[in-house]
C-alpha cells in the first residue's frame, strides 16, 4: 500500500483551500431585485478611415446607410455611383446602468460587421442606441479607439490584436431614463448570486438581528424577501444601506474546477474522498516509415521500385502502481501525493475524473 504525503502543488496546478471561512458583506452575495443594467445596441457608420473601410461591392448595407445619412443632411445621392474605402458599417453596443439619468455618459463598444480591415482613426457618426423594447435610450458619437494594430507591405502583412473592434469612452449620452421608481417599493427581494439554503438562512438571520425584528424572510435557496416597513428605515434606499454591509459567512458547496487547457486544478476545503484504489499507466505507440528504393542491376532492364519498411512498437510506462487511498482523505492530500510522485497535471485530471466516476469524489466536478 502506498501512502501519500501532502506537498505544495506545482505551478501548473493551482490549489485553493482556505482554512477558515471568512465573513462577506451581503452586497457581495446578492443582487437587489429591480436594480439592474439594460443592454443597448445600435447600427451606425464609422468614417475617416485610411482606406481600410468596407468594400461597398461586398457590403451593400454600408452604401445604403451612407445614402440615408447624406439624404438626412440634405445631400441627394440617388442614382450616384460612389465607391469610397473610408467608411465602415458597425454595430454599437453599450450598457445602461441602473438609475442612470438623462445627460450622463456611458462607454460603448464599436465592432465592424463588413469586410473592413481596421477601424483605427475612425469616427462614429451619431448613432441611436435601442433597448430590447425598441425605444431609443442613448445616442453615441465620437472617435473610435481600436484595440489592435496593422502593418502591411508588398509581400507581407502583420496584425496584432483586433483592429476591427474598438471602444469610445463616454461615447454615448443618455437621452431617456428607465421608468423605475425605487422609492415606492414596499418590499425588497434579494437574489443570491449562488443560491444556497444555508447562506439564505444566514442572511435572513443577520438582517433580523440588525433591525431587531422579523423583517427578512427566506423564500427559497436564492431569494430573501425584506419588508421595508419593518426595517424602520425612512426610505427603501436607506434600508438597502442599512443591510447591504452586514457581514455573513457564506456556505459554499464542495467543488472541484478543472481547466484542461492549462492543467489548472482549483478546489474547496470541503472536498473529501472515500476509500478508493488508483492504478494509472501510459501506453506509447510508435510507428516509423522508412521506405527503401530497390534499383535493377547495372545494364539490366527494369524499373526502380519503392519497398515499404514499417517499424511498429508499443511501450508501456509503468506510471503509478496500485495505490489505496484511505477514506476521509482530503483532495489536497491526494494531489500533493500525486505531485510528489511526479504525476503531470494532465494525468492528475484524468485520475480525478476516474475517481469521480467511481463515486468516491464527494464534490461537484466542473470541467472547463
Question: What characteristics describe this protein?
Answer:
single chain, alpha+beta, 3 domains, 6 helices, flat, disordered N terminus
Fold blueprint:
Layout: E1 24-25, E2 30-32, E3 38-47, H1 60-72, E4 87-96, E5 105-112, E6 123-130, E7 136-143, E8 145-152, E9 157-174, E10 187-192, H2 197-211, E11 216-220, E12 223-227, H3 228-231, H4 236-244, E13 247-248, E14 255-259, E15 264-267, E16 272-273, E17 276-289, E18 292-294, E19 305-307, E20 310-325, E21 329-330, H5 331-340, H6 345-357, E22 361-362, E23 364-367
Parallel strand pairs: 14-23
Antiparallel strand pairs: 1-13, 2-10, 3-4, 3-6, 4-5, 5-9, 6-7, 7-9, 8-9, 10-12, 11-12, 14-15, 16-21, 16-22, 17-20, 18-19
Subcellular location: Bacterial flagellum basal body
GO biological process, one term: bacterial-type flagellum-dependent cell motility
Protein name: Flagellar P-ring protein
Question: Can you put this structure into words, describing what you see?
Answer:
By secondary structure, the chain is an alpha+beta fold. The strands form seven sheets. It has a six-stranded antiparallel barrel with strand order 3-4-5-9-7-6. The model is unreliable at 1-20 (pLDDT under 50). 23% of the residues are buried. The protein folds into three domains: 24-34 and 181-248; 38-174, no CATH class; 255-367, no CATH class. It has six helices and 23 strands. β11 and β12 (223-227) form a beta hairpin.
Average pLDDT metric: 78
> What proportion of the residues is helical, as a percent range?
10-25%
- Main β-sheet: number of strands, strand sense, barrel status? 6 strands, antiparallel, barrel
Give the overall shape: flat
Q: Tell me the strand order in the biggest sheet.
A: 3-4-5-9-7-6
Give the H and E element order: EEEHEEEEEEEHEEHHEEEEEEEEEHHEE
Poorly predicted sequence stretches spanning 5 or more consecutive residues:
1-20
End-to-end separation in angstroms reads: 33 Å
Count every helix, treating DSSP H or I runs of 4 or more residues as helices.
6
| Proportion in β-strands | 35-45%
Count all strands and give the number: 23
Radius of gyration over C-alpha positions, nearest whole angstrom: 32 Å
Amino acid at each position: 500500500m502506498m501512502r501519500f504525503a501532502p506537498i505544495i502543488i506545482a505551478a501548473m496546478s493551482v490549489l485553493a483551500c482556505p482554512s477558515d471561512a471568512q465573513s462577506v458583506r451581503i452586497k457581495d452575495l446578492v443582487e437587489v431585485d429591480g436594480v439592474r443594467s439594460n443592454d443597448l445596441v445600435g447600427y451606425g457608420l464609422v468614417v475617416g478611415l485610411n482606406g481600410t473601410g468596407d468594400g461597398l461591392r461586398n457590403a451593400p448595407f454600408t452604401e445604403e446607410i451612407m445614402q440615408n445619412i447624406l439624404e438626412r443632411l440634405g445631400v441627394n445621392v440617388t442614382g450616384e455611383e460612389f465607391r469610397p474605402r473610408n467608411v465602415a458599417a458597425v454595430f454599437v453596443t453599450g450598457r445602461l446602468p441602473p438609475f442612470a439619468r438623462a445627460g450622463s455618459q456611458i462607454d460603448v463598444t464599436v465592432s465592424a460587421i463588413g469586410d473592413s480591415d481596421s477601424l483605427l482613426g475612425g469616427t462614429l457618426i451619431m448613432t441611436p442606441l435601442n433597448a430590447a423594447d425598441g425605444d431609443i435610450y442613448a445616442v453615441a458619437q465620437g472617435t473610435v479607439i481600436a484595440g489592435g494594430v496593422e502593418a502591411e507591405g508588398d509581400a507581407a502583412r502583420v496584425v496584432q490584436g483586433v483592429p476591427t473592434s474598438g471602444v469610445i469612452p463616454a461615447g454615448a449620452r443618455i437621452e431617456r431614463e428607465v421608468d423605475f421608481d425605487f422609492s415606492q417599493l414596499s418590499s425588497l427581494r434579494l437574489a443570491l448570486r449562488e443560491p444556497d439554503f444555508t447562506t439564505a438562512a444566514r442572511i435572513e438571520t443577520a438582517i433580523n438581528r440588525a433591525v431587531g425584528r422579523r423583517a427578512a424572510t427566506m423564500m427559497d435557496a436564492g431569494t430573501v424577501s425584506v419588508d421595508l416597513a419593518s426595517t424602520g428605515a425612512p426610505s427603501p434606499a436607506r434600508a438597502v444601506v442599512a443591510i447591504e454591509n452586514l457581514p455573513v459567512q457564506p456556505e459554499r458547496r464542495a467543488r472541484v474546477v478543472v481547466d484542461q487547457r492549462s492543467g489548472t486544478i482549483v478546489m474547496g476545503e470541503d472536498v473529501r474522498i472515500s476509500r478508493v484504489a488508483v492504478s494509472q499507466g501510459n501506453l506509447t505507440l510508435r510507428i516509423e516509415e522508412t521506405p527503401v528504393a530497390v534499383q535493377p542491376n547495372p545494364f539490366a532492364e527494369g524499373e526502380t521500385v519503392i519497398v515499404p519498411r514499417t517499424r511498429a512498437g508499443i511501450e508501456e510506462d509503468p506510471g503509478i502502481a496500485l495505490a489505496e487511498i484511505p477514506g476521509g482523505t482530503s483532495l489536497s492530500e491526494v494531489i500533493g501525493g500525486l505531485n510528489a510522485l511526479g504525476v503531470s497535471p494532465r494525468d492528475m485530471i484524468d485520475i480525478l475524473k476516474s475517481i469521480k466516476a467511481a463515486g468516491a469524489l464527494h464534490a461537484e466536478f466542473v470541467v472547463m
